[in-house]
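Narrative of activities, Objective 1.

The group set out to show that a structural description can be obtained from nothing but a protein's sequence at a throughput compatible with the screening campaign. Below is one input-output pair from the validation batch, recorded exactly as produced.
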Amino acid sequence: MSNNTTVQAALVEARPDPSTGSGQSDLRSALKFITCGSVDDGKSTLIGRLLVDSRAVLQDHLAGVQRGGETDLALLTDGLSAEREQGITIDVAYRYFATESRKFIIGDAPGHEQYTRNMVTAASSADAAVVLVDATKLDWKNPALELLQQTRRHSLLVNLLRVPSIVFAVNKLDAVEDPTLAFNNIAAALAAFAQAARIPVKATVPLSALKGYNVVDAKPGWCGYEGLSLLQLLEHLPAAAAESTEAFSFPVQWVEKFSSSSDTSQGRRVFWGRVATGGVQPGQSVTILPGGKTAVVAQVLDHTRQPRTILAGHSAGIVLDREVDVSRGDWLLAVDTFEPSREISATVAWMDDEPLVAGRIYWALHGHRWVKAKVKRIVHKLDVNTLAEEDASELPPNAIGHIELSLQEPLATLPYARSRILGSLVLVDTASHRTSGAALVI
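Output recorded for this entry:
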C-alpha cells in the first residue's frame, strides 16, 4: 500500500463518531476551508471545478463565465472587475455548496504577497486549508527540487493560525511530460518541508483542476495514486473544535437596555456577544475586565431569546444580577482564572507595507477591545526558506517573526495554541488605520 493510501485509509478509519457531540468529531457541521498557495497555482480554477462537478452552479451562471466558447472556471469566484481584468484573485471570495453528505464554505484566498493580509483573515477561522502547488513552476525532474517561497509562507501561516487540517494538492500535473515522476518528487519535497516545519499534513493529492482529475471524482492509478479525491477527503475532515474545555470568557459586542423593567432582582441590560471559551449558565460568578468587579449571571439567553446554557462558539445574551459598568469591548471572565497582563510575547505575521520596528505604537484589537500596544523588541525573524530564526532589527512586509509587546491596559490572554480567540490580536496602524499584523500569543 502506498504512503498516500495509508494516510487516507487511516484518516477514514479514525473518523470519530459524530454522535458524541465533541468539536473534534463534528462531521455534520459545514466545513469551512480555504485554498491558498502561490500566484497562478490554479486556486480559483480548482474551486470552479468543485462547484461545477458537484452541480452547485446554475446554467445561467455558467453561461456568464464563457470565454472563447469555453467555460472559464476561475471566473466563478473572481467577482471583482479588477480580478477579471487582471486574471488574479485580490480579495477572499466565499462560495457555498453541498454534497449528499456535507455542506461546505469555500474561501478563495489570493496568492500575491501584497494580499497576504486577506489570506490570513480567511485562514484565521478556517477548519481546513488546501495548499495548491503548481507542478509546472517547479523543477519537477529534480528529486531535490525547491518549493516556491509563497508555498512555504502560506503553509507556515495556516499552521501558525492553527488551521486543524492541512492538505497539499499538486496541480497541473496533466501539463508535464511525466506526471508520476513529477508527483513523486514534489510530494517528497512537500513531506520534507512539512516535517522540518512541524506541519501536520492530512494528505498530498495529485490533481488537475482544469480537467477535473482527482477533484470530485477519483482517478485511480493516475500518478501512481490510489487514494481519495480531494472532495472525498474534505467530506471526512472534522470541523474545528469549539474551545469549551477552557475557562469561561465572553467579549461583549453589544449592550441592550430593556425599554422598561420593574424587576430589581437583576440588572436592566443584556450583554450580547459570542462565548469565546467555556460555557455560561445562571448562577455563575464572573469578573468584568477592565475594572475587576464581580457579579453573578442572572439569565442566559440564546439567539432566539430563550433561556439556556450556552457553550463556546455560540451567541448569547447575558443578564447580571445587578447593574455593573460594562460596555462594548469589555470581557466577562470566569472568576479567579485569568491573570490579565500588560506584557505579551507573540508570533507576528507582518502584513503592512512599512516594516515593523521596535518602539512603534499600534492599536491592538483583542476580541472587541482596543488598547494601545508598543513594540518593545523584535526577538527574531523566521527565514521561510531555511526555517532558521535570525536576529533582526525590523520585520519587512510579509515576514514572520517573534516580538514582545507592552500594552497600555492589561488583557486576559491565553497562548494561541490553546485558544484561537483569546490568543490572537490584530495590530492596526494608529495613523492610517491599516491592518498591519496578526499577533499570536506564545
